[in-house]
Write a structure and sequence with these properties.
With 82 residues, this protein is mostly beta strands. The protein is built from one helix and eight strands; from the N terminus they run E-E-E-E-E-E-E-H-E. The protein has a five-stranded mixed sheet with strand order 3-4-8-5-6. It has a three-stranded antiparallel sheet with strand order 1-2-7. The chain is globular, with a radius of gyration of 12 Å.
């Protein structure tokens, strides 16, 4: 639903997919540093459900993966849909 899902528990890799939510906030707490990881989905509609691009903290992703450590570090995962 958030636009990513775990694919390899040994490496912490998560695959990017099409999110269902328009926005969401994951609160991170102990034993990790407290913070938030936000998911923001732009231009989403019943016609615009394909992911055009994804940015993590403002930097465009070059692959369709993020790491679990990226999520725990907090920040914003920003989707542009088409």
């Amino acid at each position: 639903a958030l636009g990513f899902y775990p694919t390899d528990p040994t490496t912490g890799e998560c695959r990017i997919g099409s999110p269902i939510v328009r926005s969401a906030t994951v609160r991170i707490g102990a034993p990790f540093d407290t913070g938030e990881f936000k998911v923001v989905v732009n231009n989403q509609s019943s016609e615009n459900f394909k992911v055009r691009s994804v940015r993590l903290n403002g930097k465009e992703l070059r692959s369709w993966t993020i790491c679990h450590s990226d999520i725990l570090s907090g920040g914003i995962l920003d989707f542009d849909m088409e």
